[in-house]
């Protein structure tokens, strides 16, 4: 059942299709087709206005009246409720909601004057044949010809177009952040550009200062140079391991490098050899050494010496080169598989050593000529004892050691002096090449049969 009012004095009438009255109050039923006067009354409502009622100006209210308003001046009575018949139902407007985030302000209902329309009031009847039904109105329009309330700020009011103030605020905040970010990027870019320009100029000036002019002659500066160019910076000098002080020297027979003698090293004569020998009783002060390098171990070389050992055991180095962490090469005696044997060994670049051993055991209290040959192109080292070849070994090179000074009676090992000689050493000779075997045999005969190739350095010859 509908709660729509019916005209007073007509109870029990047959139900008619439901018609809606204007929002301002109930309109009388008519027996004529609905009239839609031209003008400002809006869409037809299906009811004619009562006669003799003057036209009233249109009024709008923000909220539609939900109940009939009493009429002043003797208007018709409200309609009594009756049964609802099926028929076209016009869309009902929903309440106009204020913008999101604003509280709803209750508005008191105001009495509305009846809408005057011509024609006598008659009971409600359906539309006459041929009459066109009223056009549906927008959901925000009031039935009965009322115009929609004016939306705030000139925005159209619709259910789907209500502004999302939170979204707008978030968009504004994002826009502000982007603006600040762009400003910051611009400032940083400007600073970087200025700094790069200034730094580049400074670098250019410094490079210009560092550029040395071309020399115009001996001792004469160039046109842009404030003075003679400074000499190139050389690497710091190589320092060998510490050694006890020396107390004299032994001049060389060949070359310019003298042997500096330790406190216990004594020059003298000895049976079995016609010339001068260097007696070495063993110990830290029992040695002799040069102050400079004698040969380049990165190339082929030959070293030879007459040696005599007077103790039956122990590792002994007669002649070696180097004062660094490890020796470059050494001639001497060492234990090998339970035997004391003569050896010629070299230190390999990167660590380790390669040794060429004698075929027989080392003798005691006898003069022996030891000769070591290193052939750099083939990487082969060979030991000769009294002019006879013993064995050969392959090496990937020879490692320089410290100042590459020549050492007599010791070798460097693990940054310490080791393997002191116990006996005597004489006839020391060095070549900067591979000495042929024929010349090695001549050495055995002594000064009466010198080799065809002269040594670059020699000490204590016969």
Walk me through the structure.
- The chain is α+β, with helices and mostly antiparallel strands.
- 12% of the residues lie in helices and 24% in strands.
- It has two helices and 18 strands.
- An eight-stranded antiparallel sheet has the order 1-2-5-14-7-8-9-10, with no helix packed on it.
- A hairpin with a 2-residue loop joins strand 3 and strand 4.
- The termini are far apart.
Sheet of most strands: 8 strands, antiparallel
Distance between the termini: 149 Å
Chain-averaged pLDDT? 72
Structural class per helix/strand content? alpha+beta
Strand segment count: 18
**Widest sheet: strand ordering:** 1-2-5-14-7-8-9-10
Summarize the entry for a quick read.
The chain is of the alpha+beta class. The protein has helices at 165-210, 437-445; strands spanning 246-250, 259-262, 266-270, 273-280, 288-293, 301-309, 316-321, 329-336, 339-347, 353-361, 368-375, 380-385, 388-394, 405-408, 411-413, 416-418, 423-431, 457-459.
Task: Looking at this protein, list some descriptive labels.
elongated; 2 helices; eight-stranded antiparallel beta sheet; 462 residues; alpha+beta; single chain; 18 strands; disordered N terminus
Structural topology:
Blueprint: H1 165-210, E1 246-250, E2 259-262, E3 266-270, E4 273-280, E5 288-293, E6 301-309, E7 316-321, E8 329-336, E9 339-347, E10 353-361, E11 368-375, E12 380-385, E13 388-394, E14 405-408, E15 411-413, E16 416-418, E17 423-431, H2 437-445, E18 457-459
Antiparallel strand pairs: 1-2, 2-5, 3-4, 4-17, 5-14, 6-11, 6-17, 7-8, 7-14, 8-9, 9-10, 11-12, 12-13, 15-16, 17-18
């Amino acid at each position: 059942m509908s709660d729509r009012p019916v005209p007073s004095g007509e109870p029990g009438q047959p139900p008619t299709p439901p018609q809606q009255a204007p929002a301002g109050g109930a309109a009388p039923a008519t027996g004529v087709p609905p009239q839609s006067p031209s003008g400002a009354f809006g869409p037809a409502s299906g009811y004619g206005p009562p006669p003799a009622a003057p036209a009233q100006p249109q009024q709008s209210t923000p909220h539609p009246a939900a109940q009939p308003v009493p009429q002043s001046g003797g208007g018709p009575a409200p309609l009594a409720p009756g049964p609802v018949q099926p028929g076209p139902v016009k869309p009902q407007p929903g309440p106009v909601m204020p913008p999101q985030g604003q509280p709803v302000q209750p508005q008191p209902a105001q009495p509305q004057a009846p809408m005057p329309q011509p024609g006598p009031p008659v009971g409600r009847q359906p539309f006459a044949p041929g009459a066109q039904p009223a056009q549906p109105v927008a959901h925000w329009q009031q039935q009965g010809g009322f115009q929609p309330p004016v939306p705030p700020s000139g925005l159209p009011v619709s259910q789907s177009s209500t502004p999302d103030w939170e979204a707008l605020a978030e968009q504004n905040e994002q826009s502000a952040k982007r603006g600040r970010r762009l400003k910051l990027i611009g400032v940083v870019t400007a600073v970087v550009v200025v700094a790069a320009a200034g730094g580049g100029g400074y670098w250019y000036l410094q490079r210009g200062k560092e550029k040395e002019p071309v020399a115009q002659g001996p001792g004469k500066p160039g046109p842009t140079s404030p003075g003679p160019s400074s000499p190139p910076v050389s690497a710091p000098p190589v320092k060998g391991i510490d050694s006890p002080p020396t107390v004299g020297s032994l001049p060389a027979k060949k070359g310019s490098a003298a042997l500096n003698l330790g406190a216990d090293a004594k020059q003298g004569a000895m049976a079995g050899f016609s010339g001068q020998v260097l007696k070495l009783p063993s110990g830290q002060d029992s040695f002799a050494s040069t102050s400079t390098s004698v040969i380049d171990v990165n190339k082929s070389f030959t070293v030879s010496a007459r040696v005599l050992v007077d103790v039956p055991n122990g590792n002994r180095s007669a002649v070696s080169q180097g004062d660094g962490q490890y020796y470059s090469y050494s001639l001497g005696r060492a234990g090998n598989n339970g035997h004391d044997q003569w050896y010629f060994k070299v230190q390999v670049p990167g660590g380790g050593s390669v040794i060429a051993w004698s075929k027989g055991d080392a003798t005691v209290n006898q003069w022996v000529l030891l000769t070591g040959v290193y052939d750099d192109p083939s990487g082969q080292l060979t030991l000769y004892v009294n002019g006879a070849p013993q064995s050969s070994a392959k090496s990937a090179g020879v490692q320089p050691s410290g100042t590459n000074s020549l050492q007599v009676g010791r070798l460097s090992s693990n940054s310490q002096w080791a393997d002191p000689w116990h006996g005597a050493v004489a006839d020391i000779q060095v070549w900067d090449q591979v000495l042929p075997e024929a010349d090695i045999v001549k050495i055995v005969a002594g000064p009466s049969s010198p080799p065809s190739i002269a040594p670059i350095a020699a000490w204590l010859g016969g």
